[in-house]
Amino acid sequence: MEFPVTKPLLSRLLPLAAALVLAGCAAALPPLPAATDTPPQFKEQRDPARWTVAPAAEAQPRGEWWKAFGDPVLDDLVARADAHNTDVAQAGARLAQARALLRGAQADRAPQIGVGAQAARNAGAATTGGPAPATLLQTGVNLSYELDLFGRLARAQDAAALDAQQREALLQSTRLLVQAELAQTYLALRATDTERALVQDTARAYGDTLRLTQRRFEAGDVAELDVIRIQTDLAATEAEAFALERQRSALENALAVLVGAPASGFTLPTRTADNTARELPVIPAGVPASVLARRPDVAAAQAQLLAAQARVGVAQTAWFPSVSLTAAAGFASPELGDLFKWSARAWGVGALLAVPLFDGGRRDAGVQSAQAQFDASAAQYRGQVLNALREVEDQLAALRLLDEQAQAQGRAVNAAQRASAIAETRYRNGLVSQLELLDARRNELANRRQAQRVAATQQQATVQLIRALGGGWEVAAR
């Protein structure tokens, strides 16, 4: 049987057809930005034997990289920070929130079922002779389901899933940042302990020299100026020891915050170590493409970009009509005693079609807003990639130059120690003045402290490189 298309029917179908045409024009998702070209290797990888290749994160477990430093105290602090650090706790809560929102988006695609009851009493106007007051009692089950014909709900679920992936990557990135900051702070504290011990040893040596010089001054062998010079050096060295003590206190309090403990009840015993003699762990530099796959912040930026792309699709589907199916089954009766009788049963099914026609530009503004957010996410992702490559190059260059600086500083320390020993022998034999001996000792102290600082900077740069590479590999022995 054929139904003629009359003018009134055609006039009703034209808005629907126009909406579908507009929706079809708006359905194309924006293309993802072109991938950043990565070189085959970092420019600082000049010596292939020095660096190993790190596999991508998907093929490599997130190992306990801080154990490469071989310090049980550091291992314990990292474990405490992972359990109690406030930044990690916040990132974990945001991940839980994103997962809950994902479950909400998944629930929007499922049928909605509810149970309800209603009691109503209706009456007509007395002056118009309306019907007598009547009571209607209803109870039943309601079901509704939105047909996702144009993918709005599916894209919203995809965007929520990508948000959860982003939060998971940000949680991993936060853990890595906290671990790196904690390791740097702890290594700086141990370097301060070592430097402070060196300064204290120097102060004791100056004290011994001062007592000897005072006896010689009392015997008339040296001038008072020699005593004053040693007193000056001793006081300046003691002042440096107090400054290092203050620095250590600040580092200890910073560690307390990182592990989630009150600074008032957190202490670490003083411990010295010869950092200049300890070998740094071998860091697998890898290749730029592998680094980008390992960095959790880059993964988070990528997930954010894909979520923004999906939300452009969600905004575009606002031009499409929405179709919902409804069903209800239950009982209706004017008397409570008859409500659940079989004769009082009632049911109904229905379908609702909603076609947007005019909204003053709201949907178009929503699409433009989603597109702008996508463009911002694309720029942020590219910036994250470029920054990741720069950070690795910075630390590779720093470690290479620090290694050369440490070797040169080691030669300076050896020469200064030899010069100090010769000056002391010559001074005891009366061949040089006490001023020359003090100059030799000051030079030795300055070079030894500089060597200690270079070694501490090497450790800091090593941790920074680990963070720049995304962390987590099996430490290779050399």
Automatic annotation (TrEMBL):
Keyword Transmembrane among record annotations: yes
Location(s) in or outside the cell? Cell membrane
Keyword flag Cell membrane? no
Q: Offer a single GO CC term for the protein.
A: plasma membrane
Query: Main localization of the protein?
Result: membrane
* UniProt membrane topology term: Lipid-anchor
Q: Which Gene3D superfamilies match?
A: Outer membrane efflux proteins (OEP)
Q: Which UniProt keywords apply?
A: Lipoprotein, Membrane, Palmitate, Signal, Transmembrane, Transmembrane beta strand
Q: Which GO terms describe its molecular function?
A: efflux transmembrane transporter activity
Recorded superkingdom:
Bacteria
Protein name in UniProt: Efflux transporter outer membrane subunit
Q: Which source organism does the UniProt entry give?
A: Hydrogenophaga crocea
